[in-house]
Each structure stands twice: as C-alpha cells, then as structure tokens.
Specification:
Number of helices: 8
Strand order of the largest sheet: 11-12-18-15
Strand content: 25-35%
Oligomer: single chain
CATH architecture of the domain at 125-167 and 204-255: Sandwich
Order of helices and strands: HHHHEHEHEEEEEEEEEEHEEEEEEH
C-alpha cells in the first residue's frame, strides 16, 4: 500500500526543477505508462494516475507554491500506513479528511485549493488520444472522427460493483469509512480505500459485467474540429468529454504526409517536373493548389533544376497571416536516347560550345 505521495518523487525530479523539466519528465513517463500501451496492467494504470496527479499540481505555479508549503509541514513525507481511523507514524497525531479539511483554516484552505473539496470522489484524469489528420485537413481546417477508450459507470450495477441480488456489507479494510489514513510524524491524510474503492461497502458477489470495479471500458466516438494551420504534435483539450462526462479528452494531432505538398512554416512547397526543352525554352504549367484549384505558372527560359517560383497567397493561413505556395522545378533528363537524338544532342553541344 502506498503512502502519502511526494509528487517530486513520483516524477523523479528535484525540488528545484523548472517547469520545463517537469513537463518534459511528465510527457516521458505518461507515454511510458499510458494504459493504451499497457493493457491489462493495473500497476501501470496506477502509476499513470500518480504521474498525472503529480503533474497537475507541480505544473501549476500557484498549486506548486501551496504544495511546497504543505510539504514543509511533513504532509507528504511518504510515511508508513496507519490503521483505519488513526494517523500513521509514531504516536497520536493530527488526522483529517480532504473533504472536510476546509474548516481547519490555514492548512485546510491550502489542501482544499490544491485537491478541491470533492471528498471521496476522485478527480477524473484526462484521457489522451492520437488522431491521424490528412495534410490538407491540417492545413485548411476541418473535422475528423476519433475513437477514444475510456471508463464509464457500469450499466450492469450502476457503479456499485455488486451482482444482482448480492448483499452489501461494511468494508473490513476501512470499517465503512471509505478512506484509509496515511502519514508520518503525527500528520495524516485520508485517501480512498483501495479495497472498496472509497465506497465503504463491499458486495458478497461481484458484478459479472465489471468484476466489482463499478466501471467498464468503453470506446467513445467523437468528431474533432481541426483548426486551420494545425502542426504535427499539436494538442486540443475537449472539456467534459472524458470519463463519466467529467474528465477531459486531450487530442494529439498526427499530420499525415502528402504525396505532393509539404510544409515550410506558413508556406507549402510542391515539386513539378519539366523536360529539358521546357527548362531551356520556357513553358506554362498548370499547378494544383492546396484548395484544389489549378493556377497557370509561367516558367521562363533557362530555368534551372531546383529553382523555386512563388504563387502568392496560396499557403497556410494561421494567426491572420497567410503564406505562399512555392513551386520547385525538377528538370527530368532522358535516361536513354535514340541514335538520332544522340546525334542531335552532340550537334547542339558542339554549336553551344558545351563540353561533354
């Protein structure tokens, strides 16, 4: 059984760690222990929950400041587990529940501002999902569907965890309180009981649908709005779309490559082929733009391989600014010549004074 959590230890960062260091460590750990990468692994799920809880406090400057003040009182020293209803550590001490700590003033107000006044109800963690977005949709904006796995209240037992007709009795682990005390040095904090999941009661027979958990994994289908100019790795938070309608969903966009376009800041770049005659003598090309239209591009005589031409205003619009489309010319050289073509090429080279 874990003790009161020291969030710096949970993330493995120093007390003086910067916000960027905390965020970098959080992203690495969250990716490592994410439930999607560790299916049917309750230890990884618990670790993922701890990591999110620690990040929620330490990434917020105000919460972190208040947390550090509480930490100096020994509230998060990581002490031994106490017995139900008593403070952990040596001798009698101070015990409180986060639900009613506000009445204490001082320390109570600090706890309430960090953890809220939700009592035994745990804050819902954010669910993160990655969605692949076509290049043109990311550039111009649009909508894409995403299926997000998350937990919902079990429809079979309504969240009680009990099978139909089962008897429900007081939890022997927490003696019906729904919380277990943790602490050290005469200071204790109550956390939800893991045996009854904070309910204070246990069923004689578990619900066959959820195996007593009171919740089930479901797949929720959402339609996500992709803002114009979305870059690979960008995130959007959907409030209240997470587990049980209370948590949030964080969507990470993964922009798919396009066979014709690629991005350069606010500009889009494409490559068009021309033959030797077109490059030497000049030509006109119809070039496809990002919005599906075609624009006539004049290629002047003497155009070099890799030379770029600009089509103004046909790039990516973001923040009130729109880029251009850059057309890069690729000069294709014939791989094989007929005898007549070779003779003509040699004659041209001799007349132009070209060495070969």
């Amino acid at each position: 059984m874990s003790s009161a959590k020291d969030y710096y230890r949970v993330l493995g960062v120093a007390e003086a760690a910067s916000t960027d260091e905390i965020k970098k460590t959080y992203r690495r750990l969250a990716k490592q222990y994410h439930p999607d990468r560790n299916p049917n692994n309750p230890q990884a799920a618990e670790r993922f929950k701890e990591i999110n809880e620690a990040h929620d406090v330490l990434s917020d400057a105000e919460k972190r400041k208040k947390y550090d003040r509480l930490r100096r009182y020994g509230a998060f020293a990581g002490g031994a587990r106490g017995t139900p209803g008593t403070a952990g550590g040596a001798g009698p001490g101070v015990e409180f529940d986060i639900a009613d700590i506000g009445g204490m003033g001082g320390l109570g107000d600090l706890f309430s501002s960090i953890f809220g006044r939700r009592g035994r109800e745990e804050a819902e963690e954010a669910v993160e999902a990655t969605v692949r977005v076509p290049f043109r949709v990311a550039a111009l904006g649009g909508q894409v569907p995403v299926t997000v796995p998350m937990t919902e209240v079990c429809p079979g037992c309504g969240g009680s965890g009990a099978a139909p007709g089962a008897t429900v009795t007081q939890c022997g682990e927490c003696r019906g309180r729904g919380t277990i005390s943790f602490g050290q040095g005469g200071f204790a904090v109550n956390r939800p009981c893991p045996a009854c999941r904070g309910k204070g009661k246990v069923p004689s027979s578990r619900c066959p649908t959820c195996q007593g958990a009171g919740e089930v994994r479901v797949e929720k289908r959402l339609m996500i709005t992709v803002p114009p100019g979305t870059e690979d790795g960008a995130k959007v938070r959907l409030k209240g779309q997470g587990a049980r309608g209370r948590g949030d969903v964080i969507v990470v966009f993964q922009v798919e490559p396009d066979p014709f376009f690629h991005r350069d800041g606010h500009h889009v770049v494409c490559v068009v082929p021309v033959n030797v005659a077109q490059a030497m003598l000049g030509t006109r090309l119809k070039v496809r733009t990002l919005d599906g239209h075609r624009v006539v591009l004049k290629v002047p005589p003497g155009t070099q391989h890799g030379q770029r031409f600009r089509i103004p205003g046909h790039g990516i619009e973001k923040g009130g600014r729109r880029g251009d489309q850059l057309v890069e010319v690729r000069v294709d050289i014939p791989a094989h010549l007929t005898p007549d073509q070779e003779a003509a090429a040699r004659d041209f080279a001799a007349r132009a004074g070209l060495k070969h």
